[in-house]
Design a protein that fits this description.
The chain is mainly α. The protein has 7 helices and 2 strands. It has a two-stranded antiparallel sheet. Strand 1 and strand 2 form a beta hairpin.
Length: about 180
């Protein structure tokens, strides 16, 4: 079986559940030393969805989850409102980028993660860092932009995403969910 979710209602339910899960992961924050604010756990799902779901669905799930999670942080912690749009655009595009590139090569089996998929997840982390750097440089200046270079640390979540992908593939016997 190549994919698991084929019905419209299944796709809507999947979208809702994954958006909620990604939003919750976005709200689990790990404090970092200043001038950095925090890191959240949403990259695990960004990488996982990028590999397991088609580009449009991956992009939509992550963008909506970033809108909800980052929107909550804006209201609660006083982050600038522009952070919502930046997170939606950058992380949504990152998930779509990963998903698009991963689909250039088919996985050979349903029990592991290929080298290509790992390389693409690393490229996704680089894409995210560069995109946040460019946006922050444009909006806030060089000094603030330099602080987001540490976003590359999101790559530490790649091994966790690999474990999640292997678990999904092994348990469900699929190469992709959508």
């Amino acid at each position: 079986m190549e994919t698991r979710l084929k019905t419209t209602s299944g796709k809507i339910a999947f979208f809702a559940v994954m958006t909620a899960l990604t939003t919750i992961a976005n709200l689990i924050m790990i404090p970092m030393p200043q001038p950095l604010a925090e890191y959240d756990l949403s990259p695990v799902l960004t990488y996982t969805l990028g590999v397991m779901v088609d580009p449009v669905m991956a992009m939509l799930i992550v963008a909506v989850a970033m809108m909800l999670g980052t929107g909550y942080k804006v209201m609660t912690y006083g982050f600038p409102v522009v952070f919502v749009f930046g997170a939606m655009i950058v992380r949504g595009l990152e998930a779509g980028f990963i998903s698009f590139l991963v689909r250039l090569r088919e996985p050979k089996d349903t029990s592991s993660v290929t080298r290509w998929e790992i390389i693409v997840m690393v490229l996704g982390a680089v894409f995210e860092t560069v995109a946040f750097f460019v946006f922050d440089w444009y909006l806030f200046g060089w000094g603030v932009a330099l602080t987001v270079l540490a976003t590359i640390v999101d790559a530490v979540f790649i091994p966790v995403a690999i474990g999640v992908i292997v678990a999904i593939r092994s348990r469900l016997g699929v190469k992709r969910l959508l």
